[in-house]
Write a structure and sequence with these properties.
Elements (H helix, E strand, L loop, with lengths): L9 E4 L9 H15 L4 E6 L11 H12 L5 E4 L4 H13 L3 E4 L3 H5 L24 H5 L6 E4 L6 E6 L3 E6 H4 L4 E4 L3 E2 L1 H11 L4 E5 L6 H10 L1 H8 L7 E5 L2 E2 L15 H6 L4 H11 L28 E2 L1
Parallel strand pairs: 1-2, 2-3, 10-11, 12-13
Antiparallel strand pairs: 4-5, 5-8, 6-7, 8-9
Helix pairs in contact: 1-11, 7-8
The chain binds glutamic acid (GLU).
């Protein structure tokens, strides 16, 4: 009789070295890590260092040190800036299939191609440059150089079940419009690189902050468009990841944790001789996995992990 084996779980931690890791990042990574490890899964660490010019030179190494100090480990490690050829190949595929077009709209529009579109940072693009250039060569000559946008079919409605946030539905054409994928001079930005990597790295679940929930349908559309390219690259069954968006940590003003809320950098606790178990304990208590004030190591939380006890509102610090 044929045995049905459950697919191995692969989770990922995807820091952007645009600044220091803070309590909010640590909480999301803790959930992502435990979700995979508690089921015997693998963890991939992926440094998302394509955000020119916002990336900080110190931040990638510091994030890795912070994560190790907190007790994280991982099975594979990648740096996106070393994978540009792969993203270029995906972009070429999209170009040949007519899924992308060059856009020379405002600098702000073009620059948004590199960054992860966190809530409040999404720009709706009305498709101004659609059909504007007869050929790639024509657009290529333009300065500043263009970005590449995904042509969203107005009929495409994306629906998916988020493991934490529940059923989602979005008409991408009305929310984001034609979203940016790459800039001519830098290559792939966040959306293209993240989608390509999540699939090629075999990620089965994307656990991240819910400020990227609204950006997810665009990623699903892109992954679908790339399906034949993925099949060619992988020579195996192509699986799209499941998504799990968890609430953010916010300041007292309700905004995403940032410098203005005081120093919540993990490196600051580390350098001040802080106890990582106290930080993990505090974050775990906010997820309902231990008592407030309990000091606990990340690995001790493996048997206690549950998505069900995580509150559905943001954590205020
Ligand atoms: N690197 C992205 C960020 O830190 C996260 C992307 C993701 O998890 O998809 O904003």
């Amino acid at each position: 009789m044929e045995e049905v084996l459950a697919k191995p779980v692969i989770g990922r931690l995807a820091p952007s070295p645009t600044g220091a890791l803070h309590l909010g990042n640590a909480r999301t990574f803790m959930i992502a890590y435990l979700s995979a490890r508690s089921r015997g899964g693998k963890v991939v660490l992926r440094m998302e260092d394509l955000d020119h010019p916002r990336d900080k030179p110190f931040a990638a190494d510091q994030a890795i040190e912070d994560l190790r100090w907190l007790g994280f480990d991982w099975d594979e490690q990648y740096v996106q800036s070393a994978r540009k050829d792969i993203y270029r190949s995906a972009l070429e595929f999209l170009h040949v299939r007519g899924f992308v077009y060059p856009c020379v709209c405002s600098r702000k529009d073009v620059e948004s191609a590199q960054s992860a579109p966190h809530a409040g940072e999404q720009l709706f693009y009305p498709g101004t440059c659609r059909g504007r250039f007869a050929s790639y060569r024509q657009a290529e000559a333009i300065r500043p150089r263009p970005c590449w946008r995904f042509r969203v079919d107005p009929r495409s409605i994306v629906e998916f079940d988020d493991l934490f946030a529940g059923r989602q539905r979005q008409v991408v054409d009305q929310t984001l419009g034609d979203f940016p994928l790459a800039r001519d001079e830098y290559g792939a930005g966040y959306t293209l690189a993240a989608v390509v990597d999540d699939v090629l790295m075999g990620v089965t679940e994307v656990v991240r902050g819910d400020d990227l929930l609204a950006a997810t349908p665009a990623q699903i559309l892109l992954a679908r468009a790339l399906a034949p390219w993925f099949a060619r690259q992988m020579g195996a069954e192509v699986n799209l990841p499941k998504y799990c968006h968890v609430p953010l940590v916010v300041g007292a003003d309700g905004r995403r944790l940032a410098k203005r809320h005081g120093d919540t950098r993990i490196s600051a606790y580390r350098e001040a001789g802080g106890n990582p178990k106290a930080i993990i304990g505090m974050l775990a208590a906010s997820c309902g996995w231990c008592e407030r004030g309990e000091e606990i190591a990340l690995e001790e939380l493996l048997p206690r992990f549950s998505l069900a006890s995580i509150p559905h509102r943001p954590l205020v610090v």
